[in-house]
Design brief:
heterodimer, A: about 500 residues, mainly alpha, 2 domains, three-stranded antiparallel β-sheet, 6 strands, elongated, B: about 180 residues, mainly beta, OB fold (Dihydrolipoamide Acetyltransferase, E2P), Znf_RING/FYVE/PHD (chain A), TFE (chain A), TFIIE/TFIIEa_HTH (chain A), transcription (chain A), HTH TFE/IIEalpha-type domain-containing protein (chain A)
Chain lengths: ~500, ~180
């Protein structure tokens, strides 16, 4: 279990969500506020005008972690199909990740338990057992997807570059079009197009004289490409660039603020559920939804001493910790035994982290509305939309390539570590699922320990003794043992 | 950009060239075949500077022709995006002008000509500044920057710009005369 938490990387230590949520909200308003699910010709009637729907969806997603799409639809009072369309759009844009799985009673229970643990609300219990899709905002997923942060920076960079290039006429290959057959050419075709009769360009198809293709950014101008028009166009472009800079200012500010913060990572759906379940149990709040408790639904035999173990564990400072963070549901609580063993390090860190969270929370929350307004209010963001349209064809793949190239090295390193951790994490995750009771996990642990240091003979004697009295001792031993293990792993990390 | 590279080619030689001068014949045929051609990969072959090796010939069945694998050193010219070239203007029209830098043809469209130069139609079409101190017309030399290349298997064509610092007319024979 501890390993599976570490798998989500040092991030876990100081996840501060607020700035990211704010970033998402800004992005939603800047880029997606006139996204519609309708095609253009349908858009006319005011009734079916659903602009801004994407913003609502993103906002809601920012408030949650993993969410079943059905639940999301219900919460937003949206039709499932409509929502799915929007979500697919965001998935294409690399903003969210989805996970599909065949729903079983167990899974559903697990999910609702996790939801209950991370939020105040309770998930719907009666779920039809079909394939269900889950989605979450993708703040980071190191291997497969993009950082929202990087994605947006890249977008902004492209927009600016496009405008600048157009402004300075730099590196642009002139395009030509045939007025008759609409065929497009560019300057690289010039040699073939030039006609010996009048030194002008002629269409290869219909031999009519080609005209200079007007600039895409300002389509209403410059059809004949005369100088006046060009000059006017330049001014317009300059104007647009300035406007963009002003309008994007809050977004850029937020990006800069987020830059140095660790990235929230909820992990995969399974990992998230497991973690949430654990957190809930350590929270001490009795959760009837928790299947690992109410039923031995994971193929384990229910352990009679489970309750006592909980109490022992919670006697640590973990409980107060939980309370103080209680308001922030998204903050994951470290399991108390983990806090104990890493005490020298984490104590101060934990303190810092909480403070940071508070700072971010109060300060930025108040600013939030202002920023939002400034983004929304800026009068004619039509031009902005125009250049956003240019990026409509934005392909995440293209970005992925660039991004991967940069990450390749890092990934290779991580892969090695991941391989290490994967097996242990996988093992543990399955442990949690199949039997997320402490004692069984300990058995798994013990098996591992036996492999690692063979001298550990006491374990075999202790494990089958499920007496209450032993538990304190037991825990400590485990903590020490696993503490040692952690050190080993730390070394691994440094090496990698 | 120019490169000095080694290329290889299989030469077919007619039996009538066999004799004392076989090697000379082979080389002169190679020069005739290769110099001035253009490959998309290496660019224009400007000149052969030497023969590395001539392999053993292989007589073709039925024809009597002999195939020699020949390795030769040559100078090739390959234009690149971003490269600065000096070129001679060959044609001016209202769309821009064409220029040649050795074997490569370059087109500069009118929006990549500085804004203060205007097209003047007439007997000798040209681009002129408002104070007519600079004139781009046929035969004059310009320094330009390549912003795009189109590389086919046997052809290279470039698009250039003179809208940047230190680009433009470098020597105008008409003005000098």
């Amino acid at each position: 279990m501890r390993k599976s938490m570490e798998k989500s990387r040092p991030v876990q230590k100081t996840v501060v969500l607020e700035p990211f949520i704010k970033l998402v909200k800004l992005i939603a308003r800047a880029f997606y506020d006139d996204y519609t699910t309708k095609s253009d010709n349908q858009q006319k009637s005011a009734k079916s005008d659903n602009r801004g729907i994407a913003v609502v969806v993103l906002d809601e997603l920012a408030r949650r972690q993993w969410v079943r799409e059905e639940d999301l639809a219900k919460a937003l009072k949206l039709h499932g199909k409509q929502l799915r369309k929007i979500i697919r759009h965001f998935e294409e844009q690399g903003l969210i990740v989805r996970d599909h799985r065949k729903e079983t009673a167990k899974n559903a229970k697990m999910y609702s338990a996790a939801v209950a643990a991370t939020t105040d609300s309770r998930a719907e219990d009666k779920v039809k057992l079909h394939t269900h899709s889950y989605c979450r905002l993708d703040y980071s997923q190191t291997t497969l997807s993009l950082l929202i942060y990087d994605l947006v920076r890249y977008k902004l960079h492209l927009m600016k570059k496009k405008l600048r290039d157009n402004l300075e006429d730099k590196n642009t290959v002139q395009e030509y079009a045939c007025p008759n057959c609409q065929r497009k050419y560019n300057a690289l075709d010039a040699l073939r197009l030039i006609s010996m009769e009048d030194d002008c360009f002629h269409c290869e198809n219909c031999n009519s004289e080609l005209i200079v293709e007007c600039n895409k950014l300002t389509p209403e101008e410059v059809i004949d490409g005369d100088d006046n028009g060009r000059r006017r166009q330049q001014e317009k472009l300059k104007d647009m660039l300035q406007k963009m800079e002003v309008q994007m200012k809050p977004l850029m500010d937020q990006i800069n603020r987020v830059k140095d913060l660790p990235i929230p990572d909820f992990g995969s759906l399974l990992a998230w559920e497991a973690r949430a379940a654990l957190a809930a149990r350590e929270n001490g709040d009795f959760n009837p939804n928790d299947p690992s408790r109410s039923q031995g639904g994971y193929g384990s035999t229910p352990m009679p001493f489970l309750g006592e173990t909980q109490v022992e564990v919670n006697l640590g400072e973990g409980k107060e910790d939980v309370k103080s963070n209680g308001g922030d549901s998204s903050l994951k609580v470290l399991p108390p035994w983990m806090i104990k063993e890493g005490m020298k390090l984490t104590e101060e860190q934990r303190g810092e982290m909480r403070q940071e969270a508070n700072d971010g929370g109060s300060g930025e929350a108040s600013k939030m509305s202002d920023d939002k307004k400034s983004v929304m209010e800026n009068g004619d963001d039509k031009d902005l939309k125009a250049c956003l349209l240019l990026l409509g064809t934005f392909v995440p793949d293209e970005y992925l390539k660039a991004y991967y190239a940069a990450l390749l090295k890092q990934k290779q390193q991580e892969l090695a570590e991941a391989a290490n951790q994967q097996e242990s994490a996988g093992e543990l995750a399955s442990d949690i699922q199949s039997a997320s009771t402490t004692s069984v996990r300990r058995v798994g642990m013990k098996a591992k320990l036996e492999e690692e240091d063979e001298e550990d003979v006491e374990w075999e004697e202790e494990a089958p003794v499920p007496a209450n009295g032993n538990y304190k001792v037991d825990l400590n031993v485990e903590a020490e043992a696993s503490g040692g293990e952690e050190e080993e792993e730390d070394i691994d990390w440094e090496e990698g | 950009m120019f490169f000095h590279i080694v290329l290889e080619r299989n030469m077919q030689l007619h039996p009538r060239f066999f004799g004392r001068n076989l090697r000379e014949n082979l080389v002169s045929k190679l020069m005739k075949d290769v110099e001035g051609t253009c490959s998309g990969r290496h660019g224009f072959v400007v000149a052969i500077t030497g023969i590395e090796s001539i392999g053993s010939g292989l007589i073709r069945d039925g024809t009597g022709f002999v195939t020699f694998p020949v390795k030769y050193q040559c100078v090739v010219f390959r234009p690149f995006k971003g490269e600065i070239l000096e070129a001679v203007v060959t044609l001016v029209n209202k769309m821009g002008f064409f220029a040649e830098a050795g074997p490569v043809q370059i087109f500069v469209s009118n929006h990549l000509i500085p804004d203060d130069m205007e097209f003047q139609a007439g007997d000798m079409p040209n681009y002129t500044t408002s104070d007519s101190s600079v004139k781009i017309q046929k035969e004059c030399e310009v320094r330009l920057k390549i912003i795009g290349t189109r590389v086919d298997a046997t052809e290279i064509f470039c698009v250039g710009t003179i809208k940047d610092d230190f680009l433009g007319v470098i020597n105008d024979p008409a003005a000098a005369a």
